[in-house]
């Protein structure tokens, strides 16, 4: 099968291993690259398949979990690297009521709840590779997806767009946009990469240091559905306002809770301001990741149940990576006190994530970020 290589200065797009699925849709693999920072993507789920970064010694490694082939992504359930939606995270009882109409959704979690938009949500769809931007300081790839009225039970037609752009030598900006064309509908997209700054095959992330700039979180019931409360993190295992190792805070979790899978209130209602939400540090590699976003919430998940064979046949065990998913609050459609996810025709949903990578040796600015969101 032919491959097409397009190179312009430091920007490379690779369209290779093009497949055709049962619906006669083309699936491609693409790459954007600046120096030793490269990201491989696919229009299947608009996902990141790999992300190569240097460590403190200049050694380059892939820091996201995934698989070697597109076929493996088609049959997987862990959701390595895609855009999830139409509504990310969980909707309790797989239903909600909007404008007097109750909508029944795909109950793809325990036949009770909806998670990440349903079993055929955005992560399992073929997106259109819409545009390649070759010029200027921000090479990028844009994917679009047309979600029909009734898609997994959600009302109205939605056009979703995601842009992956290298906006600085070691900075990736992900911009997720969506328009409701004919009906009001909930929209909350999220990017779902599992990250291990030591390298995808380096073991667990329990010794990684995490800082989360949130003073409140949303407690959940036994089915991982928010109770509707928004409570302070102070005095709980969920307090990462100061840098803490994951294992040190995990030891404070209530008995029976294996790891972290919790939504934080980022105090950012309305998607109006992009600000730092978390910093992740891996001392062995020296890699540091600062995440900024404009979303009202962030799900912190420590890979509590991974246990799957990944790239190169490496066995990913539980806690092999973590996810920091900025998004709307889980089950917001059933909690009027949560920030609304309803998008009306004519409005534009816009969710931005900025991943900025560095190493400990040249990282004084990131290391001194405070809980007051100061740069």
TrEMBL record:
Residues 1-22 form the signal peptide. It catalyses: alpha-D-glucose = beta-D-glucose. Keywords: Carbohydrate metabolism, Isomerase, Signal. It comes from the Eukaryota. InterPro entries: Aldose_1-epimerase, Aldose_1/G6P_1-epimerase, Gal_mutarotase_sf_dom, Galactose_mutarotase-like, GH-type_carb-bd. It holds the Pfam family Aldose_epim. The keyword Signal applies. SUPFAM superfamilies: Galactose mutarotase-like. Pathway: Carbohydrate metabolism; hexose metabolism. The active site is at 192 (proton donor), 325 (proton acceptor). GO terms for molecular function: aldose 1-epimerase activity; carbohydrate binding. GO terms for biological process: galactose catabolic process via UDP-galactose, Leloir pathway; glucose metabolic process. Its EC number is 5.1.3.3. Beta-D-galactose binds at residues 89-90, 192-194, 261. This is Aldose 1-epimerase.
């Amino acid at each position: 099968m032919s491959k097409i290589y397009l190179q312009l200065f430091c920007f490379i797009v690779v369209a290779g291993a093009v497949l055709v699925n049962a619906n006669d849709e083309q699936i491609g693999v693409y790459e954007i690259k600046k120096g030793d920072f490269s990201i491989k993507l696919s229009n299947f789920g608009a996902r990141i398949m790999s992300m190569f970064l240097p460590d403190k010694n200049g050694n380059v490694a892939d820091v996201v979990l995934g698989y070697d082939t597109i076929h493996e992504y088609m049959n997987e359930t862990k959701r390595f690297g895609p855009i999830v939606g139409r509504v990310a995270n969980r909707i309790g009882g797989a239903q909600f009521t909007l404008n007097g109409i109750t909508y029944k959704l795909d109950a793809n979690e325990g036949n009770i709840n909806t998670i990440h938009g349903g079993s055929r949500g955005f992560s399992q769809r073929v997106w259109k590779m819409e545009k390649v931007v070759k010029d200027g300081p921000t090479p990028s790839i844009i994917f679009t997806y047309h979600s029909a009225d009734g898609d997994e039970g959600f009302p109205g037609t939605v056009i979703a767009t995601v842009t992956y752009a290298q906006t600085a030598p070691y900075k990736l900006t992900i911009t997720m946009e969506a328009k409701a064309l004919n009906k009001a509908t909930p929209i909350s997209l999220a990017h779902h990469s599992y990250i291990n700054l030591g390298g995808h095959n380096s073991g667990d992330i329990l010794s990684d240091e995490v800082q989360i700039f949130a003073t409140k979180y949303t407690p959940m019931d036994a089915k991982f559905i928010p109770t509707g409360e928004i409570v302070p993190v102070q005095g709980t295992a969920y307090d990462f306002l100061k840098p803490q190792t994951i294992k040190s805070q995990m030891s404070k979790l209530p008995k029976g809770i294996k790891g972290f899978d919790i939504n934080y209130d980022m105090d950012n209602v309305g998607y109006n301001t992009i600000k730092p939400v978390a910093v992740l540090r891996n001392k062995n590699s020296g890699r540091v990741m600062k995440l900024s976003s404009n979303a009202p919430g962030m799900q912190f998940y420590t890979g509590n149940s991974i246990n799957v064979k990944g790239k190169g046949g490496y066995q990913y065990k539980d806690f092999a990576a973590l996810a920091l998913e900025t998004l709307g609050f889980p089950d917001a459609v059933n909690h009027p006190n949560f920030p609304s996810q309803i998008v009306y025709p004519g409005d534009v949903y816009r969710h931005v994530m900025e991943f900025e990578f560095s190493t400990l040796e040249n990282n004084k600015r990131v290391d001194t970020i405070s809980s007051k969101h100061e740069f």
